[in-house]
Amino acid sequence: MVLRIGYVREHFCSPLLQFEAEDKGSTFTLVECPSGTGQLISRLTNDEIDIAIALTDPLIAGIAKGSEAYKLVGSYVTSPLRWAVITGHKPSTYNQISDLQGSTIGISRNGSGSQTMAYVMALQQRWPTTELKFQVNNDIRGLIDSVNDGTTSAFMWEWFTTKPFADEGECRFIGQVPTPWPSWLIAAHPTRAKPAAVRAFLDNLSRHVRAFASTEARAGPSAKFVMDTFGYAETDVKEWLDAVEYPEDCATIPWNVITDTLGVLQQAGVVGPPEGSVRRDQFVNLDVVTLV
User: Fold this and answer.
1) Closest alpha carbon to 81 in 168, 184, 150, 2
2) Which of 46, 72, 131, 263 gets the highest tally of CB atoms within 10 A of its CB?
């Protein structure tokens, strides 16, 4: 079975792209999802992909809300994600996060990381999360256009992915909100993606992750790969590599990542409290993943 792997083409996926170059389509193909995790979840649901490498919070929120289209099978990035808070390039009344209260926030899709992190931002700012207003703008281009035409006040996107647009004067950063959880997990459809095939994929991905994240690679080959592939400035790449952490084994998930993330999402009003205790088999495929 050739697995269909959904991903977002950002610098975080560098080890995956290196794995793809080695695999040459023999065990998996990549399906790009530029709208982010909301699109990844939709494609898992609609039988367009078998595995998704996606943001932690929307994946966990989706299962908590009753989705049976996927279960968690592994970890991909263990460090927090640095979300930039971004507004239009022209001078405006939006100059810091506190200025955004009561305004309309741009998101890529309902259920996306850009939406769940807006709830987290509101929680940190002590705004009533029930009063948040959103406009769906599909992708980074639509989000930037929306803050510049005034239909939204701001949006949230990963810092280094968006920084080239800010450097070119297309938008402005007015703050940042790091995730209070590890940033990327791996999810798979519970029946289409067979456990043996998923485990083989995760074992090989782990090998590429360890090589990419080694001290020697960070100092040279990994930095060059990101610069050549994504066109980022050397200073930005080095800053990102100094902070990002990958797992030793992609087929492991700390159980507290799931429970702690659920706790924050409940406080932020993204999901409701569970009925009874949180069941491990609801969230993870125990035939694939090792809980630690």
Assistant:
1) 184
2) 72
